[in-house]
Fold this protein.
Amino acid sequence: MSELNKEIKYLKGVGEARARLFKKLGVVTLRDLLRYFPRDYEDRTVFKKIAELSDGESVTVRAVASDSPRLSRTPRGRELALLRVYDDTGMMDVRFFNQSYVKDAISAGGTYLFYGKILRAGGSALMTNPVFERDGDGSSVKIGRVTPIYRMTAGLNMRSVSNTVALALKLCGDAPPDALPHSVRKEYGLAAARFAYENIHFPKDFESLKIARRRLIFEDLFVLSVTARRRRAERGSSSGQAIISEGFGEFYSALPFEPTAAQKRAVDEAARDLASGGVMARMLQGDVGSGKTLVAAALAWTVAKNGFQTAFMAPTELLAEQHFRTFEEFLSPLGVRVGRLTGSLGVKAKRLAREALVSGETDVIVGTHALLSEGVDFRALALVITDEQHRFGVSQRAALGQKGESPHVLVMSATPIPRTLALILYGDLDVSELNELPPGRKSVMTYSAGERLRRRIYDFARRLVSEGRQVYFVCPAVEEIDTIERPASPGGDGIEIARSPGTGDSELKRAREYAKQLQTEIFPELSVGLVHGSMKPREKDAAMASFISGETDILVATTVIEVGVDVPNAALIVIENADRFGLSQLHQLRGRVGRGEHQSYCVLMRGADGEKSRERLDILRGTNDGFEIAEADLRQRGPGDFFGSRQHGIPASRFIEQGAEAGTIWDARSAADTVLARDPGLKLRENRALREAVDAIFLASDGTFN
Ligand code: ADP
Ligand code: MG
């Protein structure tokens, strides 16, 4: 066990410098390293003849070099090595950029294996920067197998990660991390830990990889289930501040509208918890636009009437500002004093906000994680509400909880987590669901469109604006840092990181350029605004305020508007490159419109891969039900979106991204029930490792729930 907690900087051949790079990837200990799962695999086992190659595929080709590589320079100064190779069916061109060493590594007449992506135009085939090795020297390491691809950081390369992982595997021997009791493993037919770790990193074949993956996913889900159950059991015994409500009539009648039955029900459920003498830990789940804010405000109101304070934490400045306005609107007329505390406030305003909290002058404070800062103290904090709670890390939420004496907690989420997953992630929370939208909402009409229709969409936007409506244009998501592997040079590691063109600032740049283009070329007569994540909070506020007031007709935005933003007059959202987004994310974005009485529209611009993306996007056209969409997303992409490490404190679960079926989730859950029924305190020997794993999560979250 202790071996696994050893820091990798002490491993042979790793050292301080490299360990620092690993740390950037979240890898500090041997255990982290073993659980640093590949983000993908390349199938280098498929061989093809040159004549059979088709455009875009990644394959291995066995071919003879007809000459040794010729060196030259591109006009932009890059070194270029060109090579022609052949087999008994045809010729292929191979080119290498900035790898002049290939001149010596490849000699005329030799047979080599080349693995890479094919570019085929007409009769000729081309491979750029392939991985290669000499054929038949028996030492094939790079080709002819399923190869792990790890997420990288500059300075590390694929080979050094691979080698370090291999070393770790060797060191841990027969004792890799293993929280699965033997009985569970047997009952569900799961692979041994050793097999799983070996094959997740260095799969023998795809079948073994599948078996390994199933086991590891099961284990994570199982540990999460057990943790949730135990948290719930522990909480049952703690006592909280009793908040007594005498009905919500006064609050409801001050509202500009009639609350829905679902809103009333959720308020009542939470009010019962608050009055119970125990500590409320409730999740309020409701699809976008279902009106969760009202429920939060009702509870804050009753808490204030009892002489206690409420902290409401939103994940972004944008949302905090919006919620502040809403809370003021709902609560100020009732004599509840609402304050705000966000990072963008000036020093003095911050100080005043803090003072008002300590003195008890403020009843409800709305803010961002600035609420968590040192020096933010409450006179009598009794309720903590977090909005869009999946955006917060475990420790952040825990920190807010520490500011009072076991305050009641309400977490609100619009991310429609599939029910099965919710049971695991939030198995320790009571759940209220807003399963009903406020009346009078027309469902958003959704279309997917190709480039051909672009003009018409612009015209449509123009028409809506002329009718007094407003429009969002959402820009592409940030591209991931891409890694490509280059063949190793004889001396060095040779494998480098390439940043795809869309990394870093380019999201920003694209949004800016796009806004400019829309303003100058497409909608010169309208007012086009821009909001993106890298703006200063104050600029963001200004951009939003101008959109809310109707001064701006068209708002170009990145996904910063994804959650919660509420502008009922917006009636059209156009999402560029919609296929880059997950379905649930698209559903969230779509939720920015259809929030008022106007018929609203969502246009999903399809990117390049036509048919496939159309099929996927059709799911959105088919339903407005966030849960249905989430289930479809889960089927298609796996639960990665829901299982970000931020959520539950198990850093290595990243790789669950690659898919767990609902069946596995249920199995893991019932296995957890079985084990806990037999051994509630996890005291049995066979559950010892499990208990350690569970304790580790507890520790990471300060003993607070999710
Ligand atoms: P979400 O659940 O997505 O956070 P909000 O709380 O932002 O939803 O509410 C969405 C919109 O619906 C807001 O403009 C809000 O004022 C409005 N709303 C909330 N409840 C009702 C209701 N019962 N009747 C009419 N409109 C409502
Ligand atoms: Mg909301």
In short: The chain is about 40% helix and 15% strand. The pocket of magnesium ion (ligand 2) is lined by residues 292-293, 387, 414, 564 (CB under 6 Å). Residues 206-235 form the longest helix (30 residues). Residues 477-504, 639-659, 702-706 have pLDDT under 50 and may be disordered.
